[in-house]
Please model this.
Amino acid sequence: MTEAQEVILQNYKEPSNFGEPSWSPTSTSKMQNLTCGDEVTMYIQIEDEKVKNIAFTGEGCSISIATASILSQELQNKTLNDVLKYSENELIDLLGIELTTSRRNCALISLEAIKEAVRSNIK
Model:
């Protein structure tokens, strides 16, 4: 198993920031992968135009849960603009593994949910 695969497996088995947040979210966004049934709800707290906290809940495959966990760490304390500019390719590079088209969709639902939550707070 490669190091990247181990990181994904660890973030799937023990995801960071998983569960209903203890803090008050500024925004939430729920996304589903209709092809496979993966579902994720991202909770964000925005302060001073930055993402102060991120949490998530959901069910899905190892890729979708691990990606939500990794992104919740990666995008915390980023500016709203940085979050919106964060690309699919940056996410795939961060994961460090090749993904099939269907697995790529699993990985992208949490990124899209975070971006949607941020967009709903831009005036």
